[in-house]
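Hey there, shall we discuss this one?
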Amino acid sequence: MQFAHSEEQRLIRESARAFLAGRAGAAQVRAAMDQPCGYDEQLWRQMAGELGWTGLAIPEAYGGAGLGWVELCILQEEQGRCLAASPFFATVALAAPLIEAAASEAQRVALLPRIAAGELRFACALSGADGRPPCTGVAVTLASQGGGFTLSGVSDFVIHGDAADQLLVLARAPGTQGDAGISVVVLPARTKGMTIRPQVMLDLTRPMSRVEFEDVTVSREQLLGEPGGAAKAVGRGLDLARIALASEALGGAEHVLEMTVAYVKERRQFGRPIGSFQALKHRLADMMIEVEAAKSAAWYAASTAQEQGAELAEAAATAKSYCCDAFFDCAANAIQLHGGVGFTWEHEAHLYLKRARATATLLGSPGWLRERLVRMFASGEAASPVV
């Protein structure tokens, strides 16, 4: 397992940073927040068409570049630095691994090449109104009816739900709980009986929607894999997505640290830069330590995913919980150290704080993930005694 990036991976990072520097700054993010779809369509087209980012981690057999999760996490990290407004995470880092893990070979052939080509934007309906992470929080039911199935219920916090071409829906058999009876359904976004309502969220840079299902007819062909038996595959796909989110949080934390260091070097008080005061140095040192530790957790988790390590679940839980805490702490300190200007709408600091808080709740909060780790170790399910 490699903990330092290769020359090719460093080039991917450099090219991604250079591309995003001119196309995904604070001004572009604010402009995207005002768009009906909630993201920059031109940026998305360039990511997919010109750069091929959407197919980076998809196997060559399905039209992708055949690279791995380390390379995808590098892109996630760089997008996290600038809060890039695009459906990249929802489509490429969340839907694609779920499809690869849960679908049949024929279904992979039908869906993954279109994701790799940037032809499909996916949204994933995973949890109910209480926000509990899947699979425990799956609130949509899939009932057998005649020769097919019907979907009923409500799924909240669906990322880019109102801009998606297709929806990936987690549903459970009536009367089941936990991981039992979980199925994965693929539906066109304009399906009869399905209503998508945009939600007003804390983080305006990543729009979400509520999706309501009222006796939606589902054919057997629209189920990925076997009905009721998808929990294990879903768990792997979600762990990969958690690692991608951890990398995004790492990128955001790195940026707010750099932004804050630059500011305290320029801002002068009492005839000297405020960064020269001991109290501020202590805060900046704490932020740097958190960022470096988060980098270790995120890179280890990405390498574990790349190597298909048995400790994937532990690495994903550790990385997401630590990186999200580090991101929020750094963003909160950044606002404080910027003083009055840090609290204004015009400054970008609040955008990072809101993204940090929202990211922490996606796919399981840090507290929930740590509890999950404890349960895994206590039950003997953990693949490794040390995380």
Q: What stands out?
A: The first strand starts at residue 122 and ends at 125. The chain is about 50% helix and 15% strand.
